[in-house]
Amino acid sequence: MRAATYHGPGHIRVESVPEPELQSPRGAIIRVTHTAVCGSDLWFYRGETDRDVPSRVGHEPMGIVEEVGDDVVSVEPGDRVFAPFFISCGRCEFCRKGLYTSCVNQDSWSGDNGGAQGEYVRCPEADGTLVRVPDRHADDEDTLRSLLPLTDVMGTGHHAAVSAGVEAGSTCAVIGDGAVGLCGVLAAKRLGAERIIAMGHHEDRLAIAEEFGATDLVSERGEDAIERVQELTNGGVNHVMECVGATSSMETAIGVARPGGTVGYVGVPHGLGDGLDLEPFFRANVTLNGGVAPVRAYAEELMADVLQGTLDPSPIFTKTVDLDGVPEGYAAMDNREAIKVLVKP
Ligand SMILES: [Zn+2]
Ligand SMILES: [Zn+2]
Fold first, then answer.
1. How close is the Cα of 110 to the center of ligand 2, in Å?
2. Which of 1, 67, 180, 208 has the maximum number of C-beta atoms within 10 A of its C-beta?
3. What pTM, to 2 d.p., does this model score?
4. Ligand nearest the Cα atom of residue 97
5. Distance (Å, rounded) from C-alpha 207 to C-alpha 216?
């Protein structure tokens, strides 16, 4: 089969690789029909994080089940499914409490499982990982585009809102105008937030934030951005959604938090080499809550809203490529010509 493969910073190639094979009674083979390039893929692409060379890439699979092991009960060949960026068993202590990302049997979309940016993947834990799309929606292209972000960024934006304690009537700030931040705006809106302040530096992205329900847009940087939010809210917001993970965005998060408020953080920490200064959190009794999003836990409730037409994150896909176009997709995201790239292998 053919798959996108990482060959070092700036080098993604589409090449022939062995097709994954069913290896356990709990596994399934999926023919990938839709996937995406993630903002987190840019870290190894830019050489900011290490990754094996060569290695398969892509962690947001959607496709058709081709084959299942004898013990699989939730899906069968021919079903349309999607899967989160983590593979989880669904049986262990942490899966049962909804913390799928701490699964003791966790696995990843890489190595022999294949990356999602390829023709086929193996899911070694089908029942604990795959989400089945109901048959009547399974071939509707618009619906599938709207469901695909549930594999990662929409679930992550939702986790930011939940972690920040956003509820009906809340005033919140969303830091970051990447795909996760934009999905965070949608999630806050969906939970009933009354005032949503979107913070970012790109006009085109903030325009989507507005379309998604942001009531205020703040494009200033650093201290100016913090001052602006303080002014707008007479002293800060109770619910801050941190969707970047950088030192500067964490500083912005605490800077715009109202005393007694909560920062929900979902950006993978990077560049926090000197650590996070807890003193401002201490001084203002601000809670820091969040972490890697257990998106499998949110898949069914978010899918229900997509299928009834009240949730649509698909505008984050501003470019679509086929498998051969994956290298071009990475370049477009790296150059910020695309917010998120949809891949149709
Ligand atoms: Zn991702
Ligand atoms: Zn588990």
1. 18
2. 180
3. 0.97
4. 2
5. 11
